[in-house]
Amino acid sequence: MNLRSLIVVAVAVSLAGCGILMPSARDRAAKNTPGFKAGYSDGCASATIQDTNYRADQVRDENLYKTDKHYRSGWASGFYNCRTNRTHSMSNPASGPIPDNQPGGHPY
């Protein structure tokens, strides 16, 4: 095995140990709880609302956020994922459904 292959295997094993590549059964079960699902939905709604109206309040059940770790984890995950997807697609206007006929040039 060459050095490059050894490094790739070492990185994959270390990431698997952190649960990034292969989450544990406990992590998968936590994502299927009603609290996580509700939190994810509310977090995603908050990210979407803030993208369209900066003065809008966030969507979050404060009582659940304080008491339920699955709701809190789901909310953070939903907010991050929906915010990241939204800002990524908005940051590159050329990635829209209508291609740029003159990339890098001006029509005049």
Total beta-strand segments: 0
Proportion of helical residues: 55-70%
Major sheet, described briefly?
A: none
The secondary-structure element order is HHHHH
Q: Which class best fits the helix and strand makeup? A: mainly alpha
List key phrases describing it.
single chain; 108 residues; mainly alpha; Lipoprotein
Question: Mind explaining what this structure looks like?
Answer:
The chain has 108 residues and is mostly helical. It has helices at residues 3-18, 25-31, 34-52, 62-67, 69-91. Helix 3 (34-52) packs parallel to helix 5 (69-91). The longest helix has 23 residues, at 69-91. The model has no long low-confidence stretch (mean pLDDT 74).
Characterize this entry briefly:
This is Lipoprotein. It comes from Rhizomicrobium electricum. With about 110 residues, this protein is mainly α.
Topology, pairings included?
Layout: H1 3-18, H2 25-31, H3 34-52, H4 62-67, H5 69-91
Helix pairs in contact: 3-5
Protein name: Lipoprotein
Organism: Rhizomicrobium electricum
